[in-house]
Amino acid sequence: MSKTDDKSKLKKALEVARLYYEAKLGQVEIAEKLGISRPTISRLLQFAQEEGIVQIKVVDPFFSISKLEQRLCKRYDLKQVKIVYADEKNLQEQLGKKAASYLEEIVTDDDIIGVSWGKTMNEVARSLKIQSATGVKVVELKGGITYTPTPIYIERVLKNFERAFNTTAYKMPLPVVFENKQTHDIVLQDRYIKQLIELGKQANIALFTVGTVRDDALLFQTGYFNKAEIRKIQANACGDICSRFYDEQGQIAVEEINNRTVGIKLEDLKNKDYSILIAGGKRKYQAIKGALIGGYANCLITDVETAKTLLSE
């Protein structure tokens, strides 16, 4: 569809939406008035919702999202909380849309955005629209080369961020975890890698999710760890941020693995203007809570049930 066709469809959808929602005409009446079929009216109304021309909000008089967000801010010393209604089937999609919308609100010219990878981050990137901010830099916060074909979505994430901000991302062409500390230390002496790490540290906006330590965790499928290491991680950690594992108190859980990890340090996330944690669901609850106790996020995007649970304990 050409840009002209796109614009024409938007105008028609706007006209139909005004007649339906503001003038309170029925679909049959609108079809007769405009000389088009009723199924076309129905499709245009659906299109109006998808494009954000029409936004439907269900208000529960017994529950206030804003109050829940305020309580979470106070409880975990956060500057911003965004909460979505979602079930397990569409949780990542809804979190991604909300995070993309929030990012669009806060990004300004010459910002530096640090991004991680994974399924949730892929949904954020997919939901981004073309932005007006200029001079924005995008940098990968951790290595993105794996030893297995398991998808980690880093190429998709960076491609969509590049498209949205009309930029070229700074990529970290390394494994996120090396087999030994000696190799790790040698690689980090490279001038280019040092610059990447420093750029991630300078980023004023960081976007990340948390991983679990369940057997099916994405990070355990990438070939970085042997079975003994996975058992040790599971015995000591509740989750990871940017592949750095921490315990329920938010402290580094397995020091020797942390010393082999390439990417931003958890402590550096505390110095961001916006350190945005995007995660929800029962599977990730302990990892989310540990991250908040550790103080690694100052903004949280999550779902209603997770928000309630975070306040109930």
TrEMBL record:
It comes from the Bacteria. Residues 61-312 form the Sugar-binding domain. InterPro entries: NagB/RpiA_transferase-like, SorC_transcr_regulators, Sugar-bd_dom_put. It holds the Pfam family Sugar-bind. The keyword DNA-binding applies. Signal peptide: none annotated. One of its GO terms (molecular function) is carbohydrate binding. Keywords: DNA-binding, Transcription, Transcription regulation. Belongs to the SorC transcriptional regulatory family. This is RNA polymerase subunit sigma-70. It comes from Ligilactobacillus agilis.
